[in-house]
Amino acid sequence: MDGEIGAFVEAFPRFLIWTTSAGLMLLVASTIYVLLTPWKELALVKGGNASAGLALAGAITGLAIPIASTLASSVSLLDLLIWGVIALLLQLIVYRLVDVVLRDLPRRIEDDQAGAAIVLIAAKLSSALILAAGLWDPALQRF
């Protein structure tokens, strides 16, 4: 039993630091995303716009997936930070690509067009899953 307790005592501070860092990274990346998109997600959500809520949920989840994957595979906090920044950049690029394809995505979201929000969510989650899978290192045989 001393082995398990010793392992816990040794690992718990690292767990707290890394998990807190990943959570803060998600918060910062989500905030930056909200500030850089042309519509005001939170105001629209507070006003009852479901499409804005869906689009924001897709963005946050799309950021969380690669950050979680990086948390599981990083060898340093700097590694975690670098891939978190890449996840944010990828989400902004995906937003722009969907905007090009659907034409005037901000207006569509503001007009509560669920179809546009659903396509945006699918693009964000798909790209996040691909990025997360790309973070897997077969040489280490782990995520």
From TrEMBL:
Any one Gene Ontology cellular component term annotated for this protein: plasma membrane
Keyword field contains Ribosomal protein: no
Transmembrane segments: 15-36, 48-68, 80-102, 114-136
Annotated localization: Cell membrane
Swiss-Prot/TrEMBL keywords: Cell membrane, Membrane, Transmembrane, Transmembrane helix
Keyword Repeat: no
Membrane-topology annotation of the record: Multi-pass membrane protein
InterPro entries in UniProt: DUF350 (IPR007140)
Primary location: membrane
Protein family per UniProt: Belongs to the UPF0719 family.
Protein name, UniProt field: DUF350 domain-containing protein
Upper classification of the organism: Bacteria, Pseudomonadati, Pseudomonadota, Alphaproteobacteria, Hyphomonadales
